[in-house]
Amino acid sequence: MSAFITDQFRILNAGSFVESISNNSYYAFLGLSNPQATGFGRTDNWNSSTSNNPVDNFQHLSHYRDTSLFGKKVTTENARRVVRKVEWIANNQYDMYRHDYGQYTNRNNPAPVSKALKLYDANYYVITSDFKVYICIENGTSGVSPTVPRSSLEPTHTDVEPVSYSDGYVWKYLFKVAPSDIIKFDSTEFIVVPNDWATTTETDIQIIRDGGNSDTNENQIKTIYIEEGGSNYSNLTHDILGDGTGGEASVTTTNGVITDVTVTKGGKGYTYGIVDLSSNSGSGAKLIPIIPPSKGHGYDVYTELGTDKVLLYARFDDSTKDFPVDTKFAQVGILKNPETFSGAGTTFTGNAFSSLFAVGLSSTRTVTIGEEIRQNQGNNVTAKGYVASFDSETKILKYYQDRSLCFGNKLNQVENSNTSGITTFNTSDISFTQSGGVSQVDTSLSGSVITINAKQINLGVNFENGLANPEINKKTGDVIYIDNRPEVQRDSRQKEDVKIILEF
Predict the structure, then answer these.
(1) Mean pLDDT of the chain
(2) C-alpha distances in Å from residue 421, one per residue of 38, 65, 198, 319
(3) Structural element, H or E, at residue 458
(4) Alpha helices (H) in 56-116, listed in sequence order
(5) Are the beta carbons of 504 and 10 closer than 8 angstroms?
(6) Which of 282, 368, 451, 466 could potentially form a cystine with 441 if both were Cys, beta carbons 3.0 to 4.6 Å apart?
């Protein structure tokens, strides 16, 4: 016997993740400033290679943390559940909402336009040009007339109840994407769904949500699909039988054939139903009540739309020295609950972090981002690192260290006798392997603020004798997402808007 994880489990997980953000510290981070090299986690042809896909094992996860540069906290304001974008386009055809799309033992019931065998794969909802989202309740089809008409009239209404348009489509309004969400979360692939649908007191949402609650207004069923029109029927009103109560439907006939069905009472509590035609004189008709999700259309948009994805947003700009603009990055990731650098077991909770070591140099110089730096510390100990940034104004050099420094920069991690492991830099002179030359450490630099030409500059981290540690312990935190991408050169004239899709 086979088993499967249901869509509802995925929707539940997406919701649980969004809820967890307020109780945890999630950070979007950028990393790997020197991806084009021969070494662990890198390739010489990184930007064109198809072999630089992320690897999900503990060794690589540790490497992603080691090569991280800086991070921005993801708050509940910067996380939204999303669904696949289906745009309303004039003269396109659309599926209607049905609870029974699927593959059966004796027959298939695909969506008529998309041919999807699952509701969430069907094109049964749209977003319009003014960012309103609608469910298609009816698309002008029946078993008697199966051809789907083209939608020529863009829905615009915001009524609680579905509205019928003259092109044959009936649309149920759900919500309008907020302007602030458009700015942060709009994309070519996804529609943003509001958070806290079940609890928000926002008037527009509350009206739609409460209007969809059939426990209070008994208007659950909206549509009866005519599978077979039958013959010799009269215009009568009939009960909707099933496990719910209160449903009624009125049939309209033409020459004894049922051609239209109007739900006069939607009832409540239905998970299945049939129209009781026993009091009518005809035969052969088959009428299918379409069962909305939960208690009714609009009551639970997460189930109604299938929100099994979450979009996270973060902006990296030059507003803080934590985000240097002269660096590169080739990785984007999500880190959960990193700890502070010095506080054992203390979760970092700041709005942003630098995950780089920093050194204040006594004079400005030219450096190459990604180049290796070295420091002879005596007793056959050589500290090594990779340059991530150098600020010529503050003369602050930032660097990181990863395992490739311990293995001769080789993919197979062969021992390199010239190093004794990862060693943090001290106040000795630093040599530059690519740009050349040696620089002294400014041991007079202490604190997190310096003054240059009467201007105070916040350095983002605290220095002592010219040295500063990262703000997080890079051995901690769970990497829950990683994306390798062609390297991006940062610049003071640009901002990076990072949008990450988590699919559950």
Answers:
(1) 92
(2) 19, 17, 54, 35
(3) strand 455-463
(4) 58-66
(5) yes
(6) 466
Region class of 23: left (phi > 0), else alpha (psi between -120 and 50), else beta: alpha
3-state SS, residue 394: coil
296-347, pLDDT tens digit by residue? 999 999 999 999 999 999 999 877 778 999 999 999 999 999 999 987 789 9
Q: Left if phi > 0, otherwise alpha if psi is -120 to 50, otherwise beta: which for 370?
A: left
Residue 286: strand pairing partners? 228
Distance CA 166, CA 123 (A): 20
The reported pTM is 0.90
Is the CATH number of domain 1-80+305-355+471-504 2.60.340.10?
yes
Q: What is the dihedral of CA 119, 124, 129, 131, to 10 degrees?
A: -50
Q: In what order do the strands lie in the sheet with 125-127?
A: 125-127, 132-138, 170-176, 163-164
| Amino acid (1-letter code) at residue 501 | I
Burial per residue of 444-469, b for 16 or more beta-carbon CB atoms within 10 angstroms, e otherwise = ebeeeebeeeeeebebbbebeebbbb
Which residues, in sequence order, are bridge partners of residue 283? 231
For residues 495 and 315, the answer to whether their CB atoms sit within 8 Å is: yes
Element containing residue 438 per DSSP (H, E): strand 438-439
For 13-34, letters b (16+ CB in 10 Å) and e give bbbebbeebeeebbbbbbbbbb
d(CA 301, CA 468): 49
Residue 305: helix, strand or coil by DSSP? helix
> What radius of gyration do the chain's Cα atoms show?
31
Q: Structure tokens of 153? A: 């009239």
For residues 424 and 138, what is the distance between their CA atoms, to the nearest angstrom?
67
- Across the range 282-290, mean pLDDT stands at 96
What's the rounded Cα separation, in Å, for the pair 143 and 112? Answer: 11
Question: In angstroms, rounded to a whole number, what is the distance separating the alpha carbons of residues 402 and 385?
Answer: 8
Residue reference for tokens 């035609």:
277
Phi and psi, residue 298, nearest 5°: 95, -15
Report d(CA 94, CA 114) in Å as an integer.
8
Give Cβ neighbours of residue 314 (< 8 Å, ≥ 6 apart).
28, 72, 74, 78, 497, 498, 500
Domain limits of the chain? Answer: 1-80+305-355+471-504, 221-291, 356-469
- Could you tell me the two tokens for 388? 């991530």
8 A C-beta contact, residue 419 and residue 384: yes
Tell me which of 69-73, 187-191, 425-429, 453-457 is least confident.
Answer: 453-457
Full DSSP string of 155-207: -----SS-EE-TTS-EEEEEEE--HHHHHHH--SSEEEE-S-TTT---HHHHH
